Amino acid sequence: MVTRSETSTADQVIHLLQLLAADAPVAEIAAAEAPAEARDLALRITGAREVHQHREAGLAALLDTARELATESDPGSVLDAIVRRARRLVGTDLAYLTLYDPEAGDTFMRATDGSVSAVFQSVRLALGAGLGGLVASTHKPYWTADYWADERFRHTSDIDGAVGEEGIIAICGTPLIVEKHFVGVLFAANRSSRPFTREEVGLLGNLATLAAVTLVQTRALADAENALAALSDAHETVRHYADGVEKAAAAHDRFASLVLGGGGVDDITHALAELLGGWAVLVDENGSRHSAAGPAPEPDASGHDPVAALDALPGLGTGRLVERDGIYAVAVTAARERLGTIYVGGLILGDSDQRTVERAGVVTALVLLFERQAADARQSARNRLVSDLVSRRGSREERLSLARAVGFDPQKPFSLLVLRGEEPGGHRALLISASAATGESSLVGAHDGDVVALVPGTDADGLARAVAARIGKRTCVTVAGAGPVRDVDGIAEAHEEAHRTVGALIALGHRGKGAAATQLGFAGLIVGSDPDVDDYVRKLLGPVLDYDERRGTDLVGTLSAYFAAGGSPRHAAGTLHVHVNTVSQRLERITALLGESWQQPDQSLELQIALRLRALQAPA
């Protein structure tokens, strides 16, 4: 017969079994009424079950993590997923990951989840320093419930400062290792004291192993993709290069056929514009357009050429193509001498097109050299002719015939200019500039170190000024004019006057200017070959002389007395035997006739010389 006590015990055991079947928590099983032996057994079963469930959950979480990591192709995204999973699986306030830097020999923070400190997110850990440095140096996991009180770790100010700013107390770190190669450290940390179980450390270690393998695979995949991309780029580069070679060869054949067919630089410029599209301009060594093709920008109303203005581009003298504001330029050089510049625009040049422009520069240089040799031969003949004309070598008829043979008629009025430059070795350039500045109807040559130009026209002073101004835009040149000359026999005398005048201009500080001897005042009387004293006196005293002649006055005498008295009206009045007010009134009249500046030092000196010359001209 079953007693009540036995029935009660059986009921308690059944209730305990029901709790086990319902996965009741440990606390509820521990509180159940049952025999102590049965309750202890149930608690052991529950503990074992929770361990298995926890392991099962961890394995499931690792499987989910593996699936998530498998979908990531970017190494950065993989690292972010690792720390995010670690924080959730271990249940800590934050998780973070450091990577090993083999060059620096330390680890650096790469990814965080739950961190709030910028200092902590940028910290570096030396091997052996702190908990992370110890993990990195030993390749073994370490954990602590209270980092600050744990004496196993070597504390440093940098690491402790970063950990303190983040508020971390408990830390667990496990190494990331793949095939004995250390990759980094995975951490889980808490801002309060928290012990880590061996199961949690093992779970974090498994996650670290999975993360390390995934990270290495992702890096390998990224490297493979980069290698494939680089290979594809290399293939495309080779293809473009082959196309460029073919295109450059076609351009070379085009340029060669033009040159062999007798074409000039104009033909090369037009061919370049056709090959590339856009426009092309060749500027010569003097900055003037030699040839152009296509819709190139035109010079403005003042003559400013926007293309030639790029002549000072940095690197242009290297012979390689340079670019600014969509305009490409290459110097045309031969034997280290700049012969000109090719400009192209209105398009974007690829590598092969750039080589085509550079090749055009080389071919243009060869053609310009041929043209220069021909021009030098012509200029040499003109130099001999100008020297013969200035030196009067040969008969008058021979000189007339030689001048007319080159298209210049010495029996039509012309002016003679002497040009003197400053740049050493620039004689040839000055000859070219003078020919361009004076025009095709002029005869330009060299004689005794100077450039001599015979220019149609009677205004020697105006021509000298104009030529000096035009050439002076690129280089300093002093120009003296003489004339007009009306016959071949007058050339020698005009040259002598212009030669002395250019020296006088330089001596008087007018370097870089242009003038005729007649415009130099009293200095012109000195350097002129036929001084015109009457013209000089009339130019300075004409208004006063005319006034005296009309009115029967003697303002000229008053002016002489005033200068003789050292500019004192009172002393001049004594010399003239008139009242000082009379002298003052006459001086006011002279000012009205000559202008306010007649007493300025320069004009005053000219007036006194004119008065002295007039006195010397008077009959004794």
TrEMBL record:
> Which PANTHER family does the UniProt entry name for this protein?
CARBOHYDRATE DIACID REGULATOR (PTHR33744), DNA-BINDING TRANSCRIPTIONAL ACTIVATOR ADER (PTHR33744:SF1)
Among Pfam families, the record links this protein to: GAF, GGDEF_2, HTH_30
Q: Where is the GAF domain?
A: 74-225
Q: Where is this region: Disordered?
A: 288-307
Q: Which family does it belong to?
A: Belongs to the CdaR family.
The source's domain of life comes to: Bacteria
Indicate what this protein is called per its UniProt record: GAF domain-containing protein
